[in-house]
Amino acid sequence: MKNQIIQIIKENLVEIMPELEGEEISLDETFLDLGANSMDRGELIALTLEKLDLEVSRIEFVGAKTINELAEAVAKFHN
After folding, report:
1. What is the per-residue pLDDT across 17-68, written as a single tens digit (0 to 9) for each?
2. Concatenated DSSP letters for 45-58?
3. How far apart are CA 55 and CA 34, in angstroms?
4. Nearest one of 14, 5, 11, 1 to 68, comparing CA atoms
5. What pTM did the predictor assign?
6. Ramachandran region of residue 41, left (φ > 0), alpha (ψ -120 to 50) or beta?
7. What is the mean pLDDT of residues 3-7?
């Protein structure tokens, strides 16, 4: 399931930041290093939760700084 969540996060990240299309996106590179600001991160979390049909406060994911960390956090709420 985590791999599926990672794929959704990566797709959403490219949707929000089209300049990343075709780029190798490391799962452990911080969102900041990828060029995402706090607004981008908020939108990324919202889109990911929406695509997974989860109703969880975005505050639950504030500590996630990488794709891997976000996927692990989301997986806790996804059955």
Report:
1. 999 999 999 999 999 999 999 999 999 999 999 999 999 998 899 899 999 9
2. HHHHHHHTT----G
3. 26
4. 5
5. 0.92
6. alpha
7. 96
Q: How far apart are CA 64 and CA 10, in angstroms?
A: 14
DSSP string covering 10-33? HHHHHHH-GGGTTS---TTSBTTT
Structure confidence at residue 78 as a pLDDT band (50, 70, 90): confident
* CATH number assigned to the domain covering 2-75: 1.10.1200.10
* Cα-based angle 38, 79, 13 (whole degrees, multiple of 5): 30
Helix (H, G, I), strand (E, B) or coil at 65: coil
Burial class (CB in 10 A: 0-12, 13-18, 19+), 20: middle
Report the pLDDT averaged over residues 61-79: 93
To the nearest 10°, the Cα dihedral for 28, 7, 31, 14?
A: 140
